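Readers of this paper often ask what the protein records in our data store actually look like. The remainder of this section carries one protein's record, kept here as part of the documentation.

:::
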Amino acid sequence: MNKNLQSLLKKEEQKQKEFINLIASENYPSQDVTNYSGNILANKYAEGYPGRRYYPGLDVIDKIESMCQKESLKTFKLDSEKWHSNVQPYSGGIANAEIYLALLEFGDKILGMDLAQGGHLSHGHKANISSRAYKAISYGLNSKTNLIDYEEVERLAIKEKPKLIIAGASAYPREISFEKFGKIAKKIGAYLLADISHIAGLIVGGIHASPFPYADVVMTTTHKTLRGPRSAVIFCKKELASKIDKAVFPGIQGGPHEHTIFAKTIAFQEAQTKSFKDYQKQVARNAQVLAKELINKGFNLVTGGTDNHLMLIDLKNKNIDGTEAQNILEKAHILANRNTVPGDENAFKPSGIRIGTPAMTTLGFKEKEFKNVANFINDIITKKIAPEKIRKLVLEILKKL
């Protein structure tokens, strides 16, 4: 390996050891998942599906991919007679595009959460293919509570009659009622897609209600709270399996990344253990503690708290915007990403930051450490203490891990 390239990898490895990572969409997979994300399966082209490939010599590959499908269904306690799993999607955004391609015609209407109010790019944002290939309608939050306005969702659904409704978010700190979304979708005869990319691990751990009794299709990335490799999986009702499979391949993708599928299998097996479920409970406890401590220090949390692993801090009362806060926290070796909060119009200079507990919980942070994190954030944002001073304290805590 080129020495310059190797040195960059080592720098990044060291850097990850020297930061408190509060980015809600990031996590640290197990050593097994990390080690096996790159393996000899990357040498094989496996276009098609187990037993239906376009290349020879794939009998072992077929067994591995089939095992991944079975383990993914087991992880969410799904009946293989009723549910199908496609483990080939490369990422969440691509997986959502594949679902749209499977179930919709170009120009059909979709109803998803507004990006500025907590949704995701792939749920109908104007810059994404989801709004360029389909007619995207957005629902938002109640202006008084900042919670999903289910009455408004139903009103929009009845008025616009979308063919597909998306229940899911990228920056929403409260539990989503998939049951309510299911009733709305059923009322107008629409498909319901549950995008659980952020909360999949919490669902496995019993912290968040499951979408499977109500949704037609469920998509999740396999990193974030699931703590697997960077990838995705689509679950669908058995009667939709053929449509979903054809949309994934040959609809959008070519050869699947079987080396990543191998690592996903490991992650699904890990997610079925008691230790994984205990981890999810700790993620939620840590989030509760962090939210409470920040509120006590005068921070304004959107919705006043959290039900899951993340929270949104509205910084308007701190006279600092999200970009400034992100940058000054980074100087103190604390990572938190700028994020829009309800009322924001400029995504490049938003009023808030999004923080989460999964990554640092993986590294061993518990309630005590997250109380320290709240103190650090307060010292930097409110008390205006030099980030260099806080950085020393951050490094001292991290050395103890």
Notes: The first strand starts at residue 20 and ends at 21. Residues 319 and 381 are 9 Å apart (CA to CA). The radius of gyration is 21 Å.
